[in-house]
Amino acid sequence: MTGPRGAQTETALEALLPALAGWLPGQRWFAAKGREVAGVRIVGHQDVTPPDAVPAVTHAVIAVEFADAGPEDWFQLLLGSRPGVAGDLDHAVIGTVGDRMVYDGLADGEISRLLLSLIVSDTTVGSLRFVPEPSTEAPIVGPGRPLLGEQSNSSVIYGERAILKLFRRATAGLNPDLELHRALGREHSQEVAPLLGAIEGDLPDGAGGTVPMTVAMLQDYASNSADGWSMALTSVRDLLAEGDLRPDEVGGDFAGEATRLGRTVAAVHIELARALGTARLDADGVRAVADWMLARLDRAAEAVAQVAERRAAIAEVLEGVTSAAEGGLLVHRIHGDLHLGQELRTPRGWLVIDFEGEPSRPLTDRVRPDSPLRDVAAMLRSFDYAAFHQLAEWEPGADTDHGPPSHLQRRAQEWADRNRSAFCDGYADIAGADPRENVAVLRAYELDKAVYEVLYETRNRPNWLTIPLRSMERLLGSP
Q1: CA-CA distance, 48 to 104, in Å (whole number)?
Q2: Among candidates 379, 186, 343, which has minimal Cα distance to 271?
Q3: In sequence order, which residues have a C-beta less than 8 Å from that of residue 125 and are 6 or more positions away?
Q4: Domains in the chain and their CATH numbers?
């Protein structure tokens, strides 16, 4: 932004940089935990209100540089400032610039109300475009309240009627979450919450120009819903507490919901294929998929001894994806990061959420068409996680001691097998083909996901590492 007000904001942001460097690593959405921050710089900014307003609002993109000299990360901030802050904003304060306190603006109800009103009124403020979705009507309600517990992004909820999600990573191009919701909206999908609007902006392209970027998206809020992960965990606890009852004899049996989940995911795949088209990869295309899996395997083997020890056996299974080369591998846009936590059970059925893909992967990877079996494999992995994550706390190391499985392990495996099978049954009901018919391809995708999980847990949650290690051994031993 140019002019006196833009210069005033830039000066204030420059003064805030030391405080930002200390504040960022403590945020749940900061994607570089474990890397020492060496510096922070401003990439771009846009005032939403005048700098002297109360509250003043600024959208900023910042670059974070690291002491390891690795690639920098870009993040989006929505900053609020006031001469002083009330008690309910104390936790969001970043620092003081002049006579004003600067804080995370999403914590301020006045700011979240302003953002919603700008979307509803189809307003442009400088480089920011507040865009309502055609043929929809966003609710005009009071201030939003922050949604707790998110990690890669930040959201606010408006009166149990709408939710605004700010994408924390600043990435050039249309965010897949917004893109795929728009595509599914054109198909009148009943498997996603309706899209209501978005905030779009520009990002410097490094050559003196700009490229579009997605700042945030607004959609219906699925009130009175429960996420699939929480429901699955309750079911597992019920089974483990019931002695020798079979899963179908326990009151919290999840198999019926797993079947409905399979149907929902299959319906989303059909709608995405219809909206955005399909293709068949020839032998060279399938070879590229296998090479991508092998490259990820090599990265994991460099960091995790258990993967390095079994690299040859893992690679042999991953090569199984090439069995699809003869008839061609059907690909289209998919979810890309599907798991039980990305699905909500509402009174009307299941909804799929968060189509952003793995946030750590480049946008070019996240928008590349892939086999729907990648999503299916990810769901099968999620059922394994639900079954065994509690045992990772109760019986640490038990999955890797090579002894006979404990009673609880056998019960957890029984739950996982039952629900994995139920999910595939439901998927086949809608897709018209059983994903288990392509056993070599499905196994390759599932093992690729398990290898990724081993690397992730090694770096982030070592006490959960036994879950993907156990699954890796099972997949290597499967016929």
Answers
A1: 14
A2: 186
A3: 46, 47, 48, 118
A4: 3-220 (no CATH), 226-477 (3.90.1200.10)
Sheet holding 73-82, edge to edge: 37-47, 56-66, 73-82, 100-104, 93-97
For the chain, how many residues are written?
479
Sequence-distant (≥ 6) Cβ neighbours of residue 392 within 8 angstroms? 399, 463, 464, 465, 466, 467
Which stretches of the chain drop beneath a pLDDT of 70? Answer: 1-6, 243-251, 392-405, 478-479
Helix (H) / strand (E) element for 38: namely strand 37-47
Question: Measured between alpha carbons, how far is 126 from 211 in angstroms, rounded to an integer?
Answer: 15
Q: What is the DSSP letter of 406?
A: P
d(CA 238, CA 214): 42
Which residues, listed in sequence order, are joined to residue 163 by a DSSP beta bridge?
Answer: 157, 219
Residue 242 to residue 139: CA distance in whole angstroms: 46
Give pLDDT tens digits for 110-132. 999 999 999 999 999 999 999 99
